[in-house]
User: Fold this.
Amino acid sequence: QVQLVEVGGGSVQSGGSLTISCAASGRTTASFGMAWFRQAPGKEREFVAAITWSGRGTYYSDSVKGRFTISREYAKNMMTLQMDSLKPEDTAVYFCAADTIRPERTVGRGSMVQSLYDIWGQGTQVTVSS
Assistant:
């Protein structure tokens, strides 16, 4: 059974950068697609970014496109999210998710559907102060 653990959350000032990671255990991340979601206080969980099992395909929400970069570190069995030019509205708990059922699925608008992901991490807090 795959388990996901997010690490690297914290606090940063507006305009700053932060990198969060998702470590997988139980199975190599090279065999499934993954994504990041986030949930701000009082709001529903929303899609942030997705990446294919190969790492060659990525997809971002409009709110983070051009500021965030999703990538994979196969040697460490991890996925990372590099967040630049952070804004107070990026404050949220960030969750990583994996789709272990459809490993060949490409990324696109369909990646935003939360029910596609069968494994979730516990979340890590990211706080951006103005």
